[in-house]
Amino acid sequence: MRDKEEFYGALEEIDGRPYDQYQKILGDFDFSRYVLKIGQVQSSPDGEPTLLLVRVPQSVAGFPPRLFSSPVRKAALEDLLTRQVAMAIEDQSDSGLVSISEPTPQILPRTSLQVLPEYVEARMYIDLPGKGGRVNGEAAAVVFSEELPLIVSSALIYAYLEPEEVDEAIGVMEDADAI
How far apart are CA 22 and CA 130, in angstroms? Predict the structure, then answer.
């Protein structure tokens, strides 16, 4: 696995080159508090956005196992965290390039976010920035070095969430399931 310095070095190297050079950021990158996984990148500025998997180990995320100890509790927590990520993107992403599948009003199991005993993983998308069909590595570096860490901290780390809000969301889902 490569580290974040290699990631930023790749962005610097491809800055101003043809857009398809974004292929150089494929792979897994250790950002200390989380791992960024990029399995495919968009081939052109107007192509499908690039899928980002952001995996935060539970040693950092710190979600107590009781919060996802049953399928109902797990679904409620994943739903809440998906909403937290969506709000964090709205609040923290000045570029407008980062997104997550928008949650519907219903509390449902989500494919956009997974909570496991080992880690929390969010599936987000990014429209990789370009200028005239060329890589805008500088703008991409801002998204990955400023926006993404704020999104991760404010939505995927238990210590930064309101425990009462988390417990309430899970309680509502458990009550609905019991009916």
Answer: 10
What pLDDT digit, counting tens, does each position of 115-141 carry? Answer: 999 999 999 999 999 999 999 999 999
3-state helix, strand, coil in the chain (%, to 5): 50, 20, 30
What are the tens digits of pLDDT across the range 77-101?
999 999 999 999 999 877 789 999 8
- Between β-strands 27-30 and 2-3, what pairing exists: parallel, antiparallel or unpaired? parallel
Task: Determine the Cα–Cα distance for residues 63 and 77; give it in Å rounded to an integer.
Answer: 10
d(C-alpha 101, C-alpha 127), whole Å:
14
Of 131, 125, 122, 123, which is closest to residue 97 (Cα–Cα)?
125
